Structure formats: structure tokens, C-alpha cells
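Quick one: C-alpha cells for this chain, please?
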Amino acid sequence: MVLPACLRIEIMAKVAARERVLFGARGGLAKPCRIWTGARSKGGKRPKSGPYGSIWIPGIGGVRLHVAVAWAVGIIPEPRVPAGMNLDHRCQRTLCTEWDHYKLIPAVKNRELRWSRRRRAVHLLTAAERGAEAGEGAA
């Protein structure tokens, strides 16, 4: 499906009207996140996944925001992610609209990344807890 220029402009204008820019980049990315402040879904298919932005596209209907942005900038050829693939939020923020933070990757690789990121977060959390306990004992 070819995206008409007027629709591309409309999608990106809606995004620009409903985002705020965070200071600093995350995860070694060059650009800061742009966080969607508009409509949101309850989350992904997984119970603890974060909320995703939602946007209405004339003639298509409701679409997840990151999919609409990826379509508007040419990362994907139609307003749906190809079968067996996922759009990875390299910044790990599901409400981010900065298209430089999106990468189309195989679903299997996305699951591996999700688990490695989760393990890293748990490791950092437990290390911080250990540090806090050591600080309490010294006081």
C-alpha cells in the first residue's frame, strides 16, 4: 500500500501535536525520546508490557502509534508489521515516537532482547537493593 504524501503529513502532524521531548538519549541512542501524550492502549499481549500509543488514520482506522510512525517514515510498507517480525523500541519506551529508535527485527530476536533486558533490569535492581542494605547497616 503506497502512502500518499498528504496522509504521511497528517500522521506526522498528529504525532507532533501530542508528544513531548525528553532530555538526553537512552541506551546509547543519538536522539532523545519523544513521548506520546495522546490516546493509549492498555498494553501489549504480555501482562506487564507497557502501554502503547494509539492513533486514528482516515480510511484505515485505529493503529498502534509506533506502527503508524514506522509506516509514515518508510520502515514498513503498510500499516501493519510483517508476519514474523516486530518493531523493537531500542530505547525500551513503548510510548516513544522517535522513529530512529525503531528497528524491524525478527520476533524471535525481539523475545531474546526482551528477556535479556529484563534479566539486566533485575540484576541492577538487586544490586541497588544490596547497596541500600549495606548503607543501612553502616548507619
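The longest helix spans residues 107-138.
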